[in-house]
Amino acid sequence: MDASQQPRRALKPANRVQRALVVRGDHEAFHRTVARATAGGAAGALIASLAATFVGGSLVATPIFFTMAVATGALATVAARGKRWLRALGGGVFGAGGGALFALAMPWPAFAAALLGASTVPVLAPRSPWRGRLATGLVASVLAAAGLFVGQVLLGWDFLTTWLPAPLAAASAGAATGLFFGLASAPRHLAPPLDPVERAFKAASIPKDVEVYSILERALRSYQALQQELAQREDEAAVRSLGARSSQAVLRILDIAQQCQQVDRDLASMSAFQLDARIADLDRKMASARDPSAQATYRDAMDSLRAQKEAFDRISLGRERIVARLHKNVAILEKLQLSLIHLRNSQAERISGEASPVIETLEELGRELDATATAVGEVFGGPDHPHQLGPGRDPGA
After folding, report:
1. Measured distance CA(220)–CA(243) in Å, rounded
2. 18-22, 97-101, 263-267: which has the minimum mean pLDDT?
3. Phi, psi at residue 217, to the nearest 5°?
4. Can you say whether the dihedral through the CA atoms of 376, 325, 272, 263 is positive or negative?
5. DSSP H helical segments within the chain, as ranges?
6. How many domains in the chain?
7. What is the mean pLDDT of residues 330-336?
8. Which residues of 229-266 are buried (b: 16+ CB within 10 A; e: fewer)?
9. Is residue 79 within 8 Å of 181, Cβ to Cβ?
């Protein structure tokens, strides 16, 4: 058995922590968010410094205005995500409000950081579930407060203020602070890695309003429950084999379902009614034709269309049989899950053995999937497949 077929083992507590910190497939979005926040923080501090130059006084050096300027710029730029100006305005409002509350609540540092973190959530995690929003708020409370501290340190650094003009020094400090705001979006882009079966289901392009999708939903739910049951008995060798075999079985169900959906897409361009209409139209043309050769050609075209309609009907009926078999396959998968639950409740120690209902159910599922695969080959793999019967092949030519 190769590595790709190994079952997923239950995670130890330490592994769960590691698993929660794995970035999955959203690196680019995270990098863009950090870059936008950095640029926005720099722009906010730069504008505030230029404004201070024109009105007089070191306005940007005042902590409250630096905080508001950087938070406004960073969150407005992140919210804009391009040229969405209304969202940018909303993000700026949250940034200005959070920055002002942070500065005003500084006598209570923890409370001030919490207010600042809460103000970032609508921008950094707008559509996340409540757990994601809570995690974003907590992380932002720490990182944003740390970023503002770093920014103030940079503003007071003689080397920076000596060698750079005041606006550029302020922009540098704002960029450093904005970087921390961007890093606070990490919880939105962090997720545990998907199981290979779950990843395959996620990648499957099957519309939600078709019967096959509901079959796959049941299969996935049953598979996930099955894996949870197996995770409780991970030290048994038979469990590891069962996990791998169940994963392969569910992937086969998914593959068959995708073939059904592909046939549906292929058949969408034709229908039995359209074929009947074309046959009737050719029949009328043949009846009105006076040339015997033309009549014979029309007759051949109609025979070809009738053969195409018969093949279309056979494919449609075959698809119905395959969908029915998919229902049965998923029902056996659910039976396998229930067999494991029964085994746990009966306090049995092992799932292996010749008379084990779990093994028997798994063998039954394998036999049914073999039969389904054979039916798929007969229906979708023969000369009646819609790729050979599509509208691009004109039988009347």
Report:
1. 14
2. 18-22
3. -60, -45
4. negative
5. 13-20, 27-55, 63-80, 85-104, 109-124, 130-155, 158-163, 166-183, 186-189, 196-203, 211-231, 237-267, 272-288, 292-345, 357-380, 386-389
6. 2
7. 87
8. bbeebeeeebbbbbbbbbbebbbbbbebbbbbbbbbeb
9. no
Confidence of residue 142 (pLDDT cuts 50, 70, 90): very high
pLDDT of residue 114: 92
Boundary-marking domain end, from 148, 174, 189: 189
C-alpha–C-alpha distance, residues 107 and 377, integer Å? 74
Task: Tell me the residue range of the domain where 324 lies.
Answer: 196-389
Check whether residue 203 and residue 179 sit in a common domain.
no
Structure tokens at 3: 């590595």
User: Taking a C-beta distance cutoff of 8 angstroms, is the pair 391, 269 a contact?
Assistant: yes
Nearest by Cα to 335 from 353, 360, 369, 354: 360
Q: Is 23 helix (H, G, I), strand (E, B) or coil?
A: strand
Q: How many CB atoms lie within 10 A of CB 39?
A: 20
d(CA 259, CA 381): 10
State CA 230 to chain mean position distance. Answer: 25
Give the single-character DSSP code of 190. Answer: B
Residues 353, 360: Cα–Cα separation, whole Å: 10
Rounded to an integer, what distance in angstroms lies between the CA atom of residue 335 and that of residue 342? 10
> Each residue of 156-173: b (16+ CB within 10 Å) or e?
eeeebbeeeebbbbbbbb
Q: What is the pLDDT of residues 166-186, one digit of tens each?
A: 888 888 888 999 999 989 888
Given this model, what pLDDT does residue 14 score? 38
Whether 11 maps to a domain, the answer reads no
Mean pLDDT across the chain: 78
Q: How many CB atoms lie within 10 A of CB 334?
A: 18
